[in-house]
Known about the structure:
Blueprint: E1 90-93, E2 109-112, E3 140-146, E4 150-156, E5 164-169, E6 172-177, E7 183-189, E8 196-201, E9 205-210, E10 219-227, E11 232-238, E12 248-249, E13 262-266, E14 275-283, E15 288-296, E16 305-313, E17 319-327, E18 337-343
Antiparallel strand pairs: 1-2, 3-4, 4-7, 5-6, 5-8, 8-9, 10-14, 10-16, 11-12, 11-15, 13-14, 15-18, 16-17
Amino acid sequence: MQLRRRALAVGTTFFLAAATGHVMQKGETTTARMRTASLPPSNVLTAVVKTSGTIAAPKTAAPVQPVFIQVIKPNLPELPEIHPVGLGKNIVIAAVSDTGDIAGPSTLHKIETDPPVVLQTADYQDVDVDPIASLCADTLLTLGEVEPAMLQVTVSAPCHPDAVLTLRHAGLVFSAKTDRVGNYSVLVPALSAEGSVSVEFGGHETLFAAHPVAGLDNVARTGLQWLGASGFHLNAFEGGADIGSSGHISYRSPGSLAEGSFLTVLGDPSSEEPRLAEVYTASKSTQVQIIQVEAEVTENLCGRSMIGQKLNLDLGGALSIQPVAISMPPCDAVGDYVVLSFAHSQD
């Protein structure tokens, strides 16, 4: 049966805060005015003095001999005009002698350079490479067997850390998550002797493996699976047990493999749109009076219809799958439980 799915859209709004800064600059211009004041005229006193002596004539200084500086201009040869040249295969350099003459051909030095390198485009082919997958090891699915008739499923997926996976086995379907290094391990109650298992990573990669399972004729199993974090739960009452007493097997008191009868809870309810399951296992000698399916009335489920699937594996190894539907009461019944009872048959 096709399970109804809910589409969950998550909208995220990002706010971008922008800050604007204003820088104001003040400039002051100072103009200096320079004024020239007129000086008052000074009084000049001129006096004529009579003397009775003779005024000696001033002595004449010896004449200064002139110094002559001769500038000697060296006789340099005329050099040819130099023009820049590009690099070629051979470059010839002429040396200048001490006398200023250009050296003859016997003194020329020849420098050879490597030939120019021509770059050519190499031939290439388009290759579709996943940069993440190329850094990861291969994804592995390993199966083993644990009594009573349990499949040990181990997934090693280095390329899928913290990733949601969907596991399928003989009609049983549930989703889970790998850890931060891509590992996941779980015990799955076998529902077929072939032990075929598939693990899918969001449509990107699917693994297949199989491991034969023995001992299915010694156990009877009842499973329940559904879509969504909130939903159903299984209850099994063994040996005339009442609610909460010894022999009441549920997710609150699941029992253990050593006891022979137990409940296996499968799936991760924290993942988006989780697929969850519970499987009750009873040994051949266990007396089971009744099995119940319960659903809690919550604010998210009140007034709605819940749909799931019930799986039944008898002692002969025959597997049957039936739909389960519950119409939840109105929201004034929040906190109550809706219970469906099924008579348990191991044959």
